[in-house]
Amino acid sequence: MSDSRFLPVPSGGKKTGKTFKLEDVLECFNKPALIRELVYLVGGTVVRGEGNDVDVVIRAGDFPPALTEAILFRLFRAFSSHFNIPYDETPKYLHITINDYGPYTDYIPLFSLALLPRQPVKIFRMSQKGMEIIEKSQRELIVGGYAATSDIDAVQERISEKALQSIFKSFKQTPEEFRNLMWDHTSTQIGVLLEKHEDKETYVDERGWYIIGKLRYDIPVAKTIAKKIIENPADFGFSVKIGVPGDEIRQVCLGDVCFTEIEEAYFIETSITPNPANPATKPLKILSE
Predict the structure, then answer these.
(1) Are residue 150 and residue 269 in the same domain, yes or no?
(2) Strands of the chain, DSSP E
(3) Residue 42 pLDDT grade (very low, low, confident, very high; cuts 50, 70, 90)
């Protein structure tokens, strides 16, 4: 697919003596690739067959915070649902240790770190909008883009259209002083979310939830991040942190692809990050200079 608004991407012209067809390359990479064991069951339930709590070790000391948080969420949510324990009380019974080396007592491997082929196969054209720089100056940077879509993300979750609407509704009900724009889901607030900026406003459409963020310029870390966004906008995207009521998720399988579908959720915060769980929120596109 071509678009006359963008520079063309022709072949590099290098002759290798081989031709690689798309279907052959996809066939080459159509099976899971195991990297290492990741989640281990340890403690009394392994040693004695039962215990007053459950102990788990995750070999993820080298993981970025956003990915670690997603793994913890999935484990706590599954444990809460299976044993009928209120989600907020789950850490009393499920004890999780994160380290760089794995277990040091008897263990049972529970989950592996692996590369899973995406199904169905879909081509993402770079002409599709990602996050946009709406306005920038020496004192202000306004960015916009999709914080959430209905695509299956990197942790095999999908936010339904109904859930997107509930997130949008709860965002609009959130007081302005709590509409935080964070950095990579850490405690660093780099700005705020806006309902509207000039002729643009936040909305939900058939693709997802579109948001507008205003970066702050009063602290050095926010200035540094803003500079990096302006220099390399394609390296960043939005990522939304949501809360999910305990019974508003279900397991769905479409052919060989299984995922967790979130059917209702509420807004907590949104981050700018180089590693969004949902790659459909990238790339960032400069709209105007």
Answers:
(1) yes
(2) 33-42, 54-59, 94-99, 108-115, 131-136, 141-149, 157-159, 180-183, 189-194, 196-197, 200-201, 203-204, 208-215, 237-243, 249-254, 257-262, 266-273, 284-286
(3) very high
